[in-house]
Amino acid sequence: MAYRQLQNHSIAGAPPAYRQIAPRVTLSRRPLRVSAVAELNKTAAVVPESTALVPAPVDIANKLRYLFGRNGDYTVADAYQGTSWSVREKLIDSFNKTHEHWKKEDPKFIYYLSAEFLMGRSLINTVYNLGLEGEYAEALNQLGYEMEKVADAERDAALGNGGLGRLAACFLDSMATLDLPGWGYGIRYKYGMFKQALRNGYQVELPDIWLTKGNPWELRRDDVKFEVGFGGRVERRKQGSKEITVWTPSEKVIAQAYDNPIPGFNTPTTSNLRLWDAVPLTEFDLSAFNAGDYDRAMLERERAEGISAVLYPNDSTPEGKELRLKQQYFFVCASLQDVLSRFKAVHGNNFDLLPEKACFQLNDTHPTIAVAELMRLLLDVEGLDWDKVWTITTKCLNYTNHTVMPEALEKWPVKVMAKMLPRHMEIIEVINEGWTKWLGGHLKDLAPEERAKRIAAMSIIHENPWNKEEMLVNMAYLAVVGSSAVNGVAAIHSNIVKDEILNDFYQIFPSKFQNKTNGVTPRRWLAWCNPELASLITDTLGTSEWINDTEKLAGLRAYASDKAFQAKWAAVKKAKKAKLAELIKKVHGDEVNPNALFDIQIKRIHEYKRQYLNVLSIIWRYKQLKKMSPEERKKAVARVCVIGGKAASAYDMAKRIIRLVTAVGDVINKDPETKDYLRLYFLPDYNVSLAETIIPAAELSQHISTAGTEASGTSNMKFQMNGCLIIGTWDGANIEIAEETGIDNVFVFGVRAEEINQLRKERKNLKTDPRWDELMRDIEGGMFGDKDYFKPLVDSVNNMKVGNDWFLLANDFASYLKAQEDVDACYKDQSEWLRRSIMYTAGSGKFSSDRTIREYAEDIWHVTPSRPTA
Ligand code: NBG
């Protein structure tokens, strides 16, 4: 518990500047004061020793002058650049200090290996985390700008698909905030998550070229480069009395490191996210060029750069692309070499010490090739023997499972792996031999037939059930066998991992399996995105310590029924709703009723997340409103429904769902009879920044996955923190959120996870609700146009010859409508609604990623804080 004490101590001892959040400057853009700039320019000519001593406005002007050749007459985009490059130096000062300290102390490090980091924007987060918000807001003010608008000029770093990548970003924030020595490792994709646009209501995907204007938040490390090989052959050679294994790859690229400093909050610690860019071994094939073969001269560059070019736009959908395996190996290989080279610089070849100095978290199966790569590096490069290497490897690695979707549990054809990574394939075969042999011994008491069956079911290499000719490497099995700990991401999900997905393994190693319920950073997702609510909370609790210790939010429970407090709470929500209304106006050109209930569903579009069910209930609402007299309508609760999210480019059904949302919106938003009472908007290009505007404005949010399918969800936690009520199924983290908030405060509906398998079998005999049948006929009959396009969507849930409603929309439909009625009734009682809203924020303490990371640090990583002096 020494660890927790240190944390408490550190909060209390923080410099006062960190304790209060300065109010954001709210002036709109003022004309530039030319005289002020001229004055600044005079001062700027004197360059003092440390930029930390230069007043921020001068420094911003300096940056614009020397980095961009601008003298006054700045645009907002310039103001963003000048500010960011100025803030960057302070960030790097903190980064250097932290790393000097860690180098001296040599603590154990956690390395978070993840193919995705969905960072979003950095400027606001950096100035607030470093406690520089007052200084920079004032500086921009002097230059005639408003911080919020300037921050808007930044492009999102969208190197992730959704929850998994954003979780990794929240974890980095918490690791730094808790002073835990730890880095993230990933890929510096040139093109991040695609930009989503709507054309005639259909999704179109555009490339996300996010690096064109330079990136002030990264630092290229020209001295940190590693070779990464692919393909080729493996040979045994004699070396003295020993036989050694030599892998000669047929293709090599260089992994070039870029560091992205990660500032902690309320601490001098700034840690690191190291991302790898793939570059060619030789810049340019001059001989080919000279011989007139221009294409060949460029070939190697193109091939190398292709590796880190694009993030796969996938979220729990199958993706069998070889390039993806190449990307995975590329970043894992570079990261492990990097860690080992630092380890060796301090500890030489004393590799027994490695598990005391380094551990790696595998974020889903994507980095699982690390099992074989760490083995290879220690066996072939360092010359250690197998048993020792296996012990070290399994002590260093841990694996987090993030999904129950069978199609997302990666399996690579042996053929593909043997060709691309021949040495790794050999190593995996040897691991599997040892593993199955060990299992044989372990299960010796079983009857031979049963034993053989169990062993086959747990073999890392197995037949493809759909194609008996093909053998597959099961990456989840490799991860489980090669790790010390395996965890799920919410209580229910961890149980499903133990009882279903990896039950065979759980029976063999029960103590390996753990739960680590996800969390989100309260800095980005409450304090910085909703400063108005943050100020109200701080004023009410008399302290801002809740930003580091979210359990303190429970203090709000005492005010939940206090009318005066409720009024203040409501005023903040109203202001945030006005912001979202502005955004809707900007995107769709429509004014919306600011007093309507703002009802939101934002997440990747997926059948299991059931946006379709939401649309059906909206259509039903529309039809009810149409039937009412004008007088009756006046009594109805008005709603503005917003849906946002991207569909994976190859996910046809998800794209049809988007089109259904836009088509229904087109009809109901224009209907003069009902448009004051119901709207539906699809907000395109949902990303982290959009979430930062939408979430604080939400009053009701939808988390309605088929029970047992959403591993956790993390936006549910963000909504909860911002006092937004939840309508949801008994799934993922919804369950724990309901426990913390009070189950009666949550609109829970639908069947439970235990019932799903049976219901799936019986679905064809289900007597559907007449309202359901009516809606199916409406869509099929062309009420929203595009009849043919919507036919497969209707069939997928309603035509048992075509689809069997795998995600059980029909089963939950009636109880969903009932829960929606409960929502309306509650909203009519504003005092009750506000009481619940306050109870949500008050109950969100558990869902800080600080709590999650503390649990990982204590139970899995065994890493302790190490804080540099301020
Ligand atoms: C996602 C789950 C979410 C969960 C996040 C973070 C994948 C593979 N999984 O429910 O679907 O919240 O991971 O754990 O993206």
UniProtKB/TrEMBL annotation:
Its EC number is 2.4.1.1. The modification N6-(pyridoxal phosphate)lysine is found at residue 718. One of its GO terms (cellular component) is cytoplasm. GO terms for molecular function: glycogen phosphorylase activity; pyridoxal phosphate binding. It comes from the Eukaryota. GO terms for biological process: glycogen catabolic process. It catalyses: [(1->4)-alpha-D-glucosyl](n) + phosphate = [(1->4)-alpha-D-glucosyl](n-1) + alpha-D-glucose 1-phosphate. Its cofactor is pyridoxal 5'-phosphate. It is an enzyme of class 2 (transferase). Keywords: Allosteric enzyme, Carbohydrate metabolism, Glycosyltransferase, Pyridoxal phosphate, Transferase. Pfam families: Phosphorylase. InterPro entries: Glycg_phsphrylas, Glyco_trans_35, Pyridoxal_P_attach_site. PANTHER family: ALPHA-1,4 GLUCAN PHOSPHORYLASE (PTHR11468:SF30), GLYCOGEN PHOSPHORYLASE (PTHR11468). Allosteric enzyme that catalyzes the rate-limiting step in glycogen catabolism, the phosphorolytic cleavage of glycogen to produce glucose-1-phosphate, and plays a central role in maintaining cellular and organismal glucose homeostasis. Belongs to the glycogen phosphorylase family. This is Alpha-1,4 glucan phosphorylase. It comes from Volvox africanus.
